[in-house]
């Protein structure tokens, strides 16, 4: 049984990117390049131009690229993406712990 919803609210992901932008001062293009993401997606997230709901598979892919477990910002998504989550380290060594804590708490 697949517990993963088809769509997830975009607001938690948008808040994560806003917190990253505020903390680092990086513009959307730099953030996108640094995480190997679509520059338009990052610009839309920072500008509030994304729909209220986004496809779950796209959201999980973005989380993996920023090295964050999807369940960190969508608590209902526990084990639905367990295979992808195994590849994800939410406290990656190259991201300061203070930044990770600030990003997760910025909901």
Sequence stretches where pLDDT stays below 50 over 5 or more residues:
none
Succession of helices and strands: EHHHEHHH
Give me the number of helical elements.
6
The chain-level structural class is mainly alpha
Instruction: Categorize the overall geometry.
Output: globular
Q: Please state how the strands of the largest beta sheet are arranged side by side.
A: 1-2
Biggest sheet overview: 2 strands, antiparallel
Radius of gyration: 13 Å
Fraction of helical residues: 40-55%
> How many beta-strand elements?
2
Q: Give the DSSP E fraction (strand runs of 2 or more residues).
A: 5-15%
Question: In angstroms, what separates the terminal alpha carbons?
Answer: 29 Å
Summed over residues and divided by their number, the pLDDT gives a mean of 80
In summary, what is this structure?
This protein has six helices and two strands; from the N terminus they run E-H-H-H-E-H-H-H. With 107 residues, it is mainly alpha-helical.
Walkthrough of the structure:
This protein has about 110 residues and is mainly α. It has helices at about 10-25, 30-35, 40-45, 55-65, 80-85, 95-105, and strands spanning about 5-10, 55. Strands 1-2 form a two-stranded antiparallel sheet. Helix 1 packs across helix 6 and helix 2 packs across helix 3 (about 40-45).
Keywords:
107 residues
Topology readout:
Layout lengths: L6 E3 L1 H14 L3 H8 L3 H9 L5 E3 H10 L16 H5 L10 H9 L2
Antiparallel strand pairs: 1-2
Helix pairs in contact: 1-6, 2-3
């Amino acid at each position: 049984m697949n517990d993963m919803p088809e769509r997830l609210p975009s607001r938690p992901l948008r808040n994560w990117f806003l917190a990253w932008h505020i903390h680092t001062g990086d513009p959307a293009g730099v953030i996108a390049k640094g995480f190997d993401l679509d520059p338009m997606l990052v610009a839309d997230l920072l500008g509030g131009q994304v729909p209220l709901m986004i496809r779950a598979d796209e959201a999980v892919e973005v989380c993996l690229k920023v090295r964050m477990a999807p369940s960190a910002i969508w608590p209902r998504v526990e084990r639905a993406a367990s295979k992808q989550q195994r590849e994800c380290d939410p406290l990656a060594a190259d991201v300061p712990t203070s930044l990770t804590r600030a990003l997760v708490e910025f909901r």
